[in-house]
Design goal:
alpha+beta; Immunoglobulin-like; about 160 residues; 2 domains
Length: about 160
Amino acid sequence: MHKRGISELISTVLLIGVTISAAAMIYSFVVPLIQSNIEQSQKCVSGLLEITQDYTCYNISSKELYIEIEKGNVDVNVTGIQILLTGGQSSGGVLIKEGPKTKEVRDFNASLNLTIPKKGETNTYVINMTALGFAPESATASPIVKLKTSEKLCDVSSQIPIGNC
C-alpha cells in the first residue's frame, strides 16, 4: 500500500495562494478606511474660516451680535458654520447654513437668505442674543465641510473675544 501525501511543490503553491488571498482581503478593507480618513483631514485644514475683529461686536441695546467670518483661500466646500458663544457662566450656539434666515441668525445685508462665504470672501451675520439669553464674551467658528456622501463638523477654526459696539 502506497501512502500518498501532498508534494512539497503543491503545498508551497497552496501556501502562497492562501497568503495572497489573505493580503488581498486585508488590502480591500484597510485602503478605503485610510483613504476616508485622509480625505476628512485634508478638508479640515487650518485657516479655513476666521472670525475677523473688523465687524465683530455685541450691540448691548439691540442685544445683537455682529460677527464677520472670512473664508480663507482654500478650495474646500464649506456647507455650514457652527458658531459657539460663551459669556459668564452661559454658552450656546447657532448653526449657519445656506438658506432662509432664522429667528436666531440673519445676514447683515438684510438678505432673505443666509449664504456661506466663498473662497476669499467675508460675510457678516447678525445673531439675536435674546434667543440665547446672555451677553457673549467670546466666539468660536467651526466649518462644516462636504465630503463625498456626508458632511463633517471640523474642529474650531477661529476663536476671538467679543467687545461691545
